[in-house]
Specification:
The structure holds two protein chains of two kinds.
Chain A lengths: L1 H5 L37 H4 L16 H13 L21 H7 L2 H4 L11 H18 L3 E3 L5 H18 L6 E5 L5 H8 L3 E5 L9 H7 L4 E7 L11 H10 L3 E5 L19 E3 L20 E3 L11 E4 L5 E4 L15 H37 L15 E4 L1 H7 L3 H10 L6 E2 L8 E4 L7 H20 L1 H5 L12 H6 L10
Parallel strand pairs in A: 2-3, 2-4, 4-5, 5-6
Antiparallel strand pairs in A: 1-7, 6-7, 8-9, 10-12, 11-12
Helix pairs in contact in A: 4-11, 6-11, 7-8, 11-14
Chain B lengths: L7 H10 L30 H13 L8 E2 L12 H7 L2 H4 L11 H18 L3 E2 L6 H16 L3 E4 L5 H15 L1 E4 L14 H8 L4 E7 L10 H10 L3 E5 L18 E5 L15 E5 L12 E5 L5 E5 L6 H4 L12 H39 L3 E2 L9 E6 L3 H10 L2 E2 L2 E2 L17 E5 L6 H13 L1
Parallel strand pairs in B: 1-13, 3-4, 3-5, 5-6, 6-7
Antiparallel strand pairs in B: 2-8, 7-8, 9-10, 11-12, 12-15, 14-15
Classes of the chains: A alpha/beta, B alpha/beta.
């Protein structure tokens, strides 16, 4: 296999870079024709008070077939979940069921205007109320907003609710505690909320160091933000002691829900003592990642915090009809309208397909598959935290770096030649040369074995022929990029004179 | 319905391989006190056929505006979406991909975003556009925070004519503690924030602590603001001008960048995205090159690979949270890539003349409808201010009853302004009888004539 890949010509002729859409077509090329005028022509200059543009915007001139070919070619240069295994840690790249895609496009959903009469959108509101209730059940936290557009947006929403809660009690606080294993969004969110970040180191088992935590907790701490299972893929066995200690100083406990796929139906963040949780519907609930979005980041909170959630919130009236209302002490909106509704439809479809028992099976299989891969790879790579993992685990490429100069980045690039998307690399920051692997429950045993075989083969390649790995990939549409050059002299838009 | 390919037999073998005799052993780190010892109370287990029937039932319980003669706008518009757009979005290589962190296998997403950024720059007259934000309201709010970073000031001044949902979002973020907002009073008398109010705006901007003046053109009433005048009052006090724009109308309207805007934002839904009850769509965000390192969100840049081939990559990421953590320009770590892709395909499909013709059609039809509605005698013009494809009229009667009666006849009679959130800083209190009408290229003269006749017949 090594030989074959190493000697594959770098680029198959049908792939590789393509013209920009601006460089395609001719000035007279057209795709869709504008509608024929059927009302009297008006003098735009006069009607608009003179604010007309002198020249039309520089947009492409192309026919439909050129658009189809252009984007078809671009698609062929992309790797998605349908292309192969995508074990990107903390991103939960599971299969996206197709019926969910269809449902979001039903005209009865996609054709709704957010400000049409509420009695004409009862089905949409019912779906939102049901989805919110189900997410609250998974979380063990009954107050739910579906408004946030992404996980980071959900984090921000929850912290804003925390802030409002403390301010309401006349107890404005200034600090938020975050473990050093946290996602970068956590400290960035805290800063946007005007709080100071206090970083605490993890203990030798990868969990929260209770002594350090207790020392950091005081009456000025507004919250602890914690990911459980954490970014090492480990469930913190001290979780109740942690949330108790947080509550003892009047602070609140926030759970980053990035890793919810490990614990559905097994343990609920609300039962662990968390006051709020954001859920990434695009991770745990199978809505597609879309090349970076759109996703959705609903937030679930305790009854105490529910009055602070952003409005409007959909609810069921006593007569069985549905409406939108404003929570009593709402922080206000965090965006326009009600949320990424099309994403909510997909997540709801997923929930109704699986039900409560199906969700538990998902988590069990996700955890089993991760442990299976960990067992298969533990000899060939360093395993800094050798414990039963949840839905993901973290290897280190430090042995390869030390023995042959092959870095984790090289291993990741070489995986591309083997037909796999690499794991998350260099995260969490507390593991040197980290490789964070999350297979998800939707990979077959055969695929898991193929991925493990590829990782083992690369470990051998690194030892036998380090340069082969260090120059990978060879078979992708383009090869390693000059990223430093891109940042030094940014070219961020097409300029026709070039 | 399961999406788990591992068989029961394989599952047993995998358990043995990890040294467990049963599944519960894998969860030994989960303390007994926090285990859920009952099934989740969530209905489900539907097969695909039953699931489709259930979802169709919910969809059919709605009466979508897209199937009616709709004049509803207020930030979400019923434009025609060419067929090719959704065919591109349905390519699984696009919609099942993650953020393009591995550029060697993400050139499709990356090139599409680079082209999208180029199109947004062309529309707005700006030099740099990011890969998109959540929506128009959050893009505006991020622009306010960026202006604070650029100017090292902590207060922004926001026009009373901005969409109330955008103003609410701005106020929510401001309440979190990092900046202050002064809302100019609502100017429902003239329908604009700037023209005729320059002295009031200047006085709100006094104090030497204002980072930005925020407004949109068209504003929430559909009226056009004097962006150049706004730029001049803002720049006089060292503040930036942030302009919200409708991207489709920029086919004919002057680019805000030419008029002096420093940051241009807006809601991208009109460009090839379904209304979908208000989401998902995307926010666009564009600024000048000199401020680019203060920008939030992702950026795609052009570079080369080791063989010298043109290639694209996420760049300037030292602004972002995964590197800067609490010192990042924003906590945003995603974009609305697929919605931005829809916009890029849409703009390619209509082309530069097509976008101008579509914008012109919307504007001409809106002017036609306004004349027809004034002729009915049931509506009065609250002001005579230049507008584009959306306008407000005062209804002489019970707005709710009128709206409901016309809905029953197959018309969405615009958006009553009372339907929008109570306006922050609104002191006029005279908006309750105002109705906002938006007209897109989908509406025909025959539909508008029929609508006017129904209004007369009320």
């Amino acid at each position: 296999m090594t030989e074959k890949i190493a000697h594959t010509p770098p680029h198959a002729p049908s792939r590789g870079p393509r013209s920009l859409i601006f460089e395609t077509g001719a000035p007279e090329s057209r795709c869709v024709m504008p509608p024929s005028p059927d009302v009297p022509e008006i003098d735009l200059e006069e009607a608009l008070g003179g604010a007309l543009r002198a020249e039309p915007p520089l947009l492409p001139h192309v026919t439909e077939v050129e658009i189809a070919r252009h984007y078809s070619h671009l698609a062929s240069m992309n790797f998605g979940v349908d292309s192969g295994s995508y074990p990107l840690g903390s991103c939960t790249m599971k299969y996206n069921p197709r019926v969910n895609e269809d449902a979001a496009r039903y005209e009865g959903f996609a054709g709704l205007h957010p400000h049409q009469p509420f009695d004409s959108v009862q089905g949409a509101l019912e779906l939102m109320v049901e989805l919110a209730a189900d997410l609250g059940e998974v979380a063990g936290l009954p107050g739910v907003t579906l408004q946030p557009a992404a996980g980071a947006h959900g984090e921000l929403t929850a912290l804003m609710c925390f802030r409002a809660y403390h301010v309401d009690r006349g107890d404005a606080r200034s600090k938020v505690i975050i473990p050093d294993s946290a996602h970068g969004t956590n400290p960035a969110t805290v800063a946007m909320c005007g709080y100071e970040v206090v970083t605490v180191p993890s203990d030798e088992h990868g969990g929260v160091d209770m002594e350090v935590l207790r020392a950091a907790l005081d009456a000025d701490v507004a919250a602890l933000m914690l990911t459980n299972p954490n970014t090492l893929g480990l469930f913190d066995p001290n979780i109740l002691a942690i949330t108790d200690a947080v509550h003892a100083v009047g602070a609140l406990a926030y759970c980053d829900g990035a890793n919810l796929n490990a614990i559905m139906g097994i343990s609920r963040p609300g039962d662990m003592g968390f006051d709020a949780l954001h859920i990434n519907l695009h991770k745990t609930f199978s809505t597609p990642h879309g090349g970076g979005g759109p996703g959705a980041g609903p937030v679930c909170v305790t009854e105490v915090l529910a009055p602070y959630l952003p409005g409007p919130v959909p609810y069921r009236r006593d007569d069985g009809t549905y409406d939108l209302g404003e929570p009593a002490r709402s922080i206000g909106r965090v965006r326009s309208f009600y949320g990424n509704f099309g994403i909510l439809v997909r997540a709801y479809a997923y929930l109704r397909a699986l039900g409560g028992s199906g969700l538990r099976e998902v988590s069990e299989q996700a955890v089993l598959s991760a442990n299976y891969l960990k067992e298969r790879l533990r000899e060939a790579y360093d395993l800094p935290y050798d414990r039963t993992c949840m839905h993901e685990f973290v290897l280190s490429g430090s042995r390869q770096k030390r023995e042959s100069g092959v870095r984790t980045l090289d291993i990741a690039k070489r995986l591309l030649d083997h037909g796999f998307h690499p794991p998350t690399v260099y995260f969490p920051l507390i593991v040197e040369e980290a490789l964070m692997i999350e297979p998800t429950e939707t990979e077959s045993l055969e695929e898991l074995d193929r991925f493990a075989d590829a990782m083992l083969a690369i470990a051998k390649e690194a030892a036998a022929d380090p340069d082969l790995v260090k120059s990978a990939p060879y078979t992708t549409p383009v090869r390693r990029l000059d990223e430093a050059g891109a940042a030094r002299k940014p070219d961020l838009r097409y300029r026709p004179e070039e | 319905m399961r999406h788990i390919p591992v068989t029961c037999e394989q599952r047993e073998a995998m358990l043995r391989a990890v040294g467990c005799s049963e599944m519960s052993e894998l969860f030994s780190d989960v303390p007994d006190e926090v285990r859920l010892n009952r099934p989740l109370a969530i209905e489900g287990g539907l097969g695909e056929m039953e699931l489709v029937a259930h979802l169709r039932g919910l969809a059919d319980a709605n009466e979508p505006a897209s199937g009616l003669v709709s004049f509803a706008g207020a930030g979400c518009y019923d434009h025609y979406v060419p067929s090719i757009v959704d065919h591109v979005l349905r390519r699984p290589e696009f919609f099942t991909a993650y953020t393009p962190y591995q550029p060697e296998v993400s050139q499709g997403t990356l090139q599409a975003i680079y082209e999208y950024q180029s199109m947004i720059c062309a529309l707005t007259g700006m030099e740099v556009a990011n890969a998109s934000m959540y929506d128009g309201a959050t893009a505006l709010t991020e622009a306010a925070m960026m202006a604070c970073r650029v100017t090292r000031r902590q207060r922004v001044v926001c026009a009373g004519t901005l969409h109330p949902e955008w103003r609410h979002t701005l106020a929510t973020y401001a309440a979190a503690g990092n900046f202050d907002v002064t809302f100019l009073p609502s100017t429902a008398e003239g329908g604009v924030a700037i023209t005729g109010w320059e002295a009031e705006v200047s006085s709100a901007l006094e104090g030497g602590d204002v980072a930005a003046l925020l407004l949109s053109s068209p504003n929430v009433y559909g009226n056009l603001e004097d962006v150049s005048a706004a730029a001049s009052v803002a720049h006089d006090v060292g503040a930036l001008l942030v302009v919200g724009a409708n991207p489709l109308l920029l086919g004919v309207l002057e680019a805000p960048g030419i008029q002096g805007a420093d940051i241009v934002v807006g809601e991208g839904q009109p460009l090839g995205n379904a209304m979908s009850f208000g989401g998902p769509a995307f926010g666009f965000f564009a600024c000048r090159e000199q401020h680019m390192r203060h920008m939030p969100g992702r950026l795609v840049g052009k570079t080369v690979d080791v063989d010298g081939n043109r290639a694209f990559v996420l760049t300037l990421s030292t602004r972002e949270q995964h590197i800067r953590r609490e010192k990042a320009t924003s906590n945003i770590c995603s974009n609305q890539a697929l919605c931005a892709l829809a916009a890029a395909v849409y703009l390619s499909a209509v082309g530069r003349e097509g976008l101008a013709a579509t914008a012109r059609a919307c504007i001409e039809k809106a002017h036609y409808l306004r004349d027809r509605l004034l002729e009915t005698g049931r509506f009065a013009a609250p002001w005579d201010t230049p507008f584009a494809h959306e306008f407000a009229l005062r209804y002489e009667g019970d707005v709710a009853a009128m709206h409901a009666a016309l809905f029953d006849r197959g018309f969405v009679a615009g958006v009553p302004l009372s339907r929008l959130d109570p306006m922050v800083g609104d002191s006029s209190g005279n908006a309750d009888d105002l109705v906002l009408f938006a007209v897109t290229e989908k509406r025909t003269r025959a539909e508008m004539d029929a609508f006017a006749e129904e209004v007369v017949a009320l």
